[in-house]
Amino acid sequence: MMNTMVIFAEFFVVILKVLWAFVTAGAKWVVRPKEKSVAGQVCVITGAGSGLGRLFAKEFARRRAVLVLWDINSKSNEETAELVREIYRELDSESPMAKEGAIGGLEEVLPFKPQVYTYVCDVGKRESVYSTAEKVRREVGNVDMLINNAGVVSGHHLLECPDELIERTMVVNCHAHFWDYCASKFGAIGFHESLSHEIKASDKDGIKMTLVCPYLVDTGMFKGCRIRKEIEPFLPPLKPEFCVTQSMRAILTDQAMICTPRIVYMVNFMKSFLPFEAIVCMYRFLGADKCMYPFLAQRKELMNNNEVKEDI
Question: DSSP readout, 213-236?
Fold first, then answer.
């Protein structure tokens, strides 16, 4: 009898905690939490040579972080580093009065020392990651923040995708964080959730994780990818700058997960209780089942053009 009462009491407490979680989550939608300071902290960004990685680098530079840029392309990585140095020079040239109004406040400006480091690293090769990480420890110091941004995409159906490309996608998109694009990113979500729980169980309160789940982002990586044309005006691709701004806000407020646009939250919620066939119907209604076809056609045409040039 006593055990039954204890179980009911604990269940009641759980219900209260769940309700409180809803209240606090709702409050954060109304009252925006204050962004934490990253001034002087060492931030490693993978895939920093272009796209979202470059934008993340610029945003963290504006917040006076020490940047460590990783990319497989040394030229594009150096171009990002130069953009970061320009931001550093602008911050350094500001008057004390102007600095007081800068992101993070005056207290973060005073100890600021502009530093950016570039490393060529293939995150799909563990040896490259290990050696580069060791160089960073030796040359820069301990890392405070890691932005796992690097990613590749094939765009093919599973049975049409070469094994080498599947392995490359999994290695870069999933294994690099510890099989085709969506599966690899779903693996990253599972990795995030399991590691978050493991960190909580270990009482490592100083380690924070943020899962970024954006809708289709308008970068060169997905050029040609289109949903149903009748739906596209209501759900256009995200601007990279908007995606990074929202992600930065989530990272700097220790938000566990950020979905952009917010309708993606509804999609995740609906997936938890809707029948599979209902999800398939919605998927097809949006044209998501064929959204990669224009992407593949463009890539095939590009490959054919490259082959013609090589023959010439």
Answer: EES-B-SGGGTT----TTTTTTSP
Q: Show Cβ contacts of residue 180 under 8 Å, excluding neighbours closer than 6 positions.
A: 154, 156, 158, 161, 166, 169
Q: Is the predicted pLDDT of residue 173 greater than 70, yes or no?
A: yes
Do 53 and 150 form a contact (C-beta atoms < 8 A)?
yes
The pLDDT of residue 133 is 94
Annotation says 215 is catalytic = no
- 211-214 vs 145-147, strand pairing mode: unpaired
Q: Which CATH class is domain 36-149?
A: alpha beta
Distance CA 179, CA 169 (A): 6
Whole-number Å distance between alpha carbons of 78 and 57: 12
pTM of the model: 0.69
CA–CA distance, 255 with 235 (Å, rounded to integer): 24
Q: Which DSSP state fits 150?
A: -
In Å, how far from its chain's centre is CA 2?
48
Q: Judge whether residue 88 has pLDDT over 70.
A: yes
Mean pLDDT is lowest, of 2-16, 66-80, 91-105, 169-183, for 91-105
Q: Rounded to whole angstroms, how far apart are CA atoms 21 and 17? A: 6
Q: Which two tokens stand for residue 57?
A: 């680098």
Active-site residue, from 88, 117, 119, 181:
181
What percent of the chain is predicted at pLDDT more than 70? Answer: 81
Residue 69 has pLDDT above 80, yes or no: yes
Asked whether the beta carbons of 112 and 91 are under 8 A apart, the reply is: yes
* pLDDT tens profile 120-138: 999 888 899 999 999 999 9
Distance CA 28, CA 22 (A): 10
Residue with tokens 């020392």: 113
| Spatial CB neighbours of 24, under 8 Å, sequence gap ≥ 6 | none
